[in-house]
Design goal:
Two copies of one chain form a homodimer. The first copy, chain A, is mainly α. The first copy, chain A, has three domains: 128 residues, MgtE N-terminal domain-like (MgtE N-terminal fold); 111 residues, CBS-domain (Roll); 174 residues, SLC41 divalent cation transporters, integral membrane domain (Tetracycline Repressor, domain 2), CATH 1.10.357. Chain A is built from 24 helices and six strands. In chain A, the strands form two sheets. Chain A has a three-stranded mixed β-sheet. In chain A, helix 12 links the parallel strand 1 and strand 2. In chain A, helix 20 packs parallel to helix 22. The longest helix of chain A has 34 residues. Chain A is elongated. At the A-B interface, helix 13, helix 15, helix 16, helix 17 and helix 18 of A face helix 13, helix 15, helix 16, helix 17 and helix 18 of B.
Chain lengths: 452, 452
């Protein structure tokens, strides 16, 4: 019925059915919509219709809806539902989404929400929440189909059919032994082409790739990306199958991690998006800016210590923004290459040395090119060959230093298990600013008697 | 057998089986490995063993292997295989991967590679290559299961079983009408719980979410991410089903697009990774740096036009790096917020105005905070209250301007369908540098008689 309608038309239609209290009509519309769309419609609905909208939804749809809302709205919806219905809805939600929902809430709020849930479901969620944030354990769901290694193919297919409604993906079944240890994996395809009486143990794939629950989510993402999996099993230290992490959650992780890298590279501090309030955004950005202010003063201090030189050749000031800008920039370029490269590469010693050597070469080439160029320009502009040479040699040196600093510092941080992206804002910018000013004024002072 | 071996042990085992010409043993090892791992082992193999390694692989494994190699090695492998085997392997490869492989090759090389392929397979690949790069059409594969809307549930299940081996994902079947137009989608789950004689048309979900083949891959990624799909159908302008884009390709797209954003934000030019050669990396980074060199000279020119002012109060130079650094930084922060926000948000007029207003507020707050702070510091350092006031007011103004420039410019570019991330390196940095120097020296010159 609503196949060719726009979102606005659908919303109007829904409001009409709510006003006229026509539940059947309402359900037939909702039936054709994706959870994401239902959530957007709920967001846009006038407040007075929201309560009845929720009343008209069954538990499954409510669970789907809540998973697509932002945190504030989630809690608002749960408040409207009351304890009993909330319990049912939380039972139905994916465990990983529920764990995310409970994440920052107070312990009292959490226990009041979990109170209405089934014991076994609330136990699972609490187990998930025991893993540190941003680990595979925190992301996993228990909506997977597992079979015993002594099952026959026929038994496996039966189990698959029963759990089809429940499982997140159907392409793979995980095989466990008596102790629920993960011992193999069987594809749906293999089941279809095998004899019904064959034992699973004999057709399964034994070298299962799994991740420990404590693994960092970024590393788990790398595994799924490498192997093109739709899901990866999560195991305990004893190799007991705990759950799976699915690719849709990994997609969110990858976007989140990329945003974090960009935030750190642009020194914009903790996550700010379109919805962040003015004061919060300013508050989150200020620490970096104040740090940078003091860093800027360090540069100022360096310049002031060369006040004599500057007083005698004011023209030196003209090239200051160019030299420090270029040095900062080449450093950021190297940093970006390293930070993003580490997303998809392991870092062994060979890679490391090759990379540093490559970046040294890059620094040398761009340093020579830009150095020669600026020498000529400076000479033509100021009519002073020595000044040109001073500026050119300074730029050559600062570009090599800047490139190496942008490469080596994040690599060292990575080795020390510190996130290299954090290095950008303060560390590299400071160091490169200071390096470049000291180099520039140092060389200029040495040749001062020739310039004047 | 190899279940608990390390990668090195496995490689040694494989080399042994190659030396002793034991194909059975070789195959039993390979059987337990993932394509990604096979590719890594191939990469590490001494050259003298590579040819026999390839000879021992069957067509399916060869196709899997090639999909995991980098481009150079892919072509090297195909060369070793000869025309006939190459044709068979290319027939087996996923069409989207094959299209990527052929991407930058010369027309002669492409037709020589396609020569050995089956007509229908090579036609499909050529069709895919007709879509512009970075579109849904370019990413799609035809490994999907589709059924007619007049099929019975029983017929649908039969077809699913036959194609299970071939399809990328099994959770959904796409339903087409007589003209192959996409009219619905049925989940595997719905098939299992329906009567075998029910007609697909009656149980299918009609509001199918699909993407046009010409859609930008980033937008297609956003759809999959929003709806948590494992695959999304791709249709022609006439709504004819052409293929599907799967989430594993989307994962690669998301990583690639994030890298591109970071490259542009750090002005590091076209993609550079750990493997890029020194000269290529230098060549790709140089254009931006040379541009920035000239931009730096514009700043120098502005400073030189205030030479008189600077001559009289050299201390003004001390605060130059701080003011331009801070302005550049707040601009980059705003830019990062906008660029990444656009990854997951649509931009309507309300959002736009709210965002600009928010950033103005942020600029005002950080401008006031940092302005007051620097006024005090400058006064204490230089013992000149007017100088402190000049520096403070300049910083307040330049921070507001910088924040707004970093917000408004990328939004305008986005509206003009230009990638806003590109705005960073040159545009925002230049403008903010120029704004900040003109503001600073303008204010300083106006109050010059008071400072001295």
């Amino acid at each position: 019925m609503i196949k060719n309608m726009t979102e606005n038309q659908i919303t109007l239609h829904i409001i009409k059915s709510l006003k006229e209290n026509k539940k059947k009509e309402f359900e037939s519309i909702l039936d054709e919509l994706q959870p994401y769309d239902i959530a957007r419609i709920y967001d846009d609905l006038p407040d007075k219709h929201k309560t009845r909208f929720l009343l008209f939804l069954n538990t499954d749809l409510l669970a789907d809806l809540i998973q697509e809302l932002n945190k504030e709205t989630q809690l608002e919806v749960l408040n409207k539902l009351g304890i009993e219905k909330t319990g049912k809805v939380l039972d139905t939600m994916d465990n990983d989404d529920l764990a995310t929902l409970l994440d920052d809430l107070s312990p009292e709020k959490i226990s009041s929400l979990l109170a209405g849930m089934k014991k076994e479901e609330s136990k699972i969620v609490q187990d998930i929440m025991n893993y540190p944030p941003e680990t595979a354990g925190r992301l996993m769901t228990n909506r997977l189909v597992w079979i015993r290694n002594y099952y026959s193919v026929k038994e496996a297919v039966e189990k698959l059919k029963i759990f089809a409604e429940f499982a997140e993906t159907l392409n793979y079944l995980y095989v466990v032994d008596q102790e629920r240890k993960l011992v193999g994996v069987v594809s749906y395809r293999d089941l279809l082409i095998s004899e019904p009486n064959e034992i699973v143990r004999n057709i399964m794939f034994e070298r299962v790739i799994s991740v420990p629950a404590a693994m960092d989510q970024e590393e788990a993402a790398r595994m799924i990306e490498r192997y093109d999996f739709l899901a990866i099993p999560v195991v305990s230290e004893e190799n007991v199958l705990l759950g799976i992490v699915t690719v849709d959650d990994i997609l969110d992780v990858v976007i989140q991690e990329a945003n974090e890298d960009i935030e750190k590279l642009s020194a914009s501090g903790k996550s700010i998006d379109f919805e962040t309030k003015t004061f919060v955004a300013a508050y989150r950005r200020l620490p970096w800016l104040i740090l940078l202010l003091f860093i800027g003063l360090v540069s100022g201090k360096i310049i002031s210590s060369y006040q004599e030189t500057l007083n005698q050749v004011v023209a030196l000031a003209f090239f200051m923004p160019m030299i420090s800008g270029m040095t900062g920039n080449t450093g950021t370029q190297s940093l970006a290459v390293v930070v993003r490269g580490l997303v998809s590469h392991d870092l062994d010693k060979g890679t490391l040395l090759r990379l540093v050597w490559r970046e040294f070469g890059v620094g040398l080439i761009i340093g020579l090119t830009c150095g020669v160029l600026i020498s000529i320009i400076a000479y033509l502009w100021q009519g002073n060959a020595i000044l040109g040479l001073v500026v050119g040699v300074s730029l050559l040196l600062t570009l090599i230093i800047g490139t190496l600093a942008g490469t080596v510092i994040p690599l060292i941080l990575y080795r020390l298990n510190i996130d290299p992206a954090i290095a950008s804002g303060p560390l590299i910018t400071t160091l490169n600013d200071i390096f470049s000013l000291v180099t520039y004024f140092g060389i200029a002072s040495a040749f001062l008697h020739l310039i004047i």
